[in-house]
Amino acid sequence: MTMSTELAATEGVDPRYTDLDIWPTASILDALGEAQMAATAVVRTAVPEIERVVEAAVPKLLSGGRLFYVGAGTSGRIGLQDGVELVPTFGWPPERLVLLLAGGTGAVFQAAEGAEDDEDQARTDILAHAPGPNDVVLGIAASGATPYACAAISVAREKGSLTVGISCNAQGRLLRVSELAIRLITGPEVVSGSTRLKAGTAQKAALNLLSTTLMARLGHVYRGLMVDMRVTNAKLQRRAVRMVQQLAGGSEEEIVAALQETGGNVKRAVLLRHGLSLAEAETRLDMADGSLRTVLADLHQC
Q: Of 61, 203, 219, 236, which has the fewest beta carbons less than 10 angstroms from its beta carbon?
């Protein structure tokens, strides 16, 4: 398959928007809004593929594996954003998160010319983190053909990692070299080739579904609450107090004391409010793969 064929879906021109630049402002906005809604609808159709990824990834991450995000340009920055937010939102250990963006951290703020084509650098970058069998590596590329993402994914798969290609083209090298695929077929953009639009929205929405479901399955969510969030400011401190109150009761003074003893961790503070010591809470959570629901169910049976 030729490169031009692989890129057709995201690089194509939609004739409906040929005269977009002379449309009334409201019409431009309406067209863009319609396209964004279409992008999220595409993500719903990919739910079975996302489910397969979650089911394959959970055992590896429960065994101590790391979560990698790899990409270039807009796709890479979308992946980086999703990954970074797992640490404060769900308490995901930063040492188990690897973010690889073509061009390095400088590419977060400005385009890194040619970086997305550098396959040698991609191999060097990912090998520096020694990917292994328990790691889960997400490669994100709207075109499905970005050399940096493809090369990194190929290396990770050779090392036995679970590799996942996320692309807005049904065909492409990224999906061929990945073990699992998430296809988000968004088609031509309102502004041809500008994959920060529909494709970007679809990629971010799909990652929202994937990472949030992973975190829920890994025990970082209980009763719809972020029980492993990191308390880093006054707003989050108040939220943590409300969550412990909702889940375990007690006076504000008692709840604040429990949170202080656990370093601000809601999950553990709840268990302290149920009468466990911090050491007992840690032991029970370890035995339950971090699931607060499982630990509380066991306590209620005693």
A: 236
For residue 198, is pLDDT > 50? yes
pLDDT tens per residue, range 65-123: 999 999 999 999 999 999 999 999 999 999 999 999 998 887 787 776 678 889 999 99
Residue 302 pLDDT:
63
Pick the catalytic residue: 85, 119, 254, 261?
85
Judge contact between 112 and 176, C-beta under 8 A: no
Decide if 147 contacts 134 (C-beta within 8 A): no
**Residue showing tokens 């493809």:** 150
282 is catalytic: no
- With a cut of 60, say whether residue 150 has pLDDT above it: yes
Residue with tokens 């429960």: 62
Dihedral angle at the C-alpha atoms of 140, 144, 146, 148, nearest 10 degrees?
50
> What value does the mean pLDDT take over residues 25-46?
96
Q: Is the distance from CB of 247 to CB of 270 less than 8 angstroms? A: yes
Ordered domains of the chain (ranges, CATH): 3-217 (3.40.50.10490), 234-301 (1.10.8.1080)
User: Annotated catalytic, 85?
Assistant: yes
Cβ partners under 8 Å of residue 135, min gap 6: 60, 65, 66, 67, 68, 156, 161, 162
Whether the CB-CB separation of 226 and 211 falls below 8 Å is answered with no
The rounded mean pLDDT for the chain is 93
Among residues 135, 27, 1, 122, the alpha carbon closest in space to that of 72 is found at 122
For the beta carbon of residue 163, count every other beta carbon within 10 angstroms: 27
Return left, alpha or beta for 66; rule: phi > 0 is left, psi -120 to 50 is alpha, else beta: beta
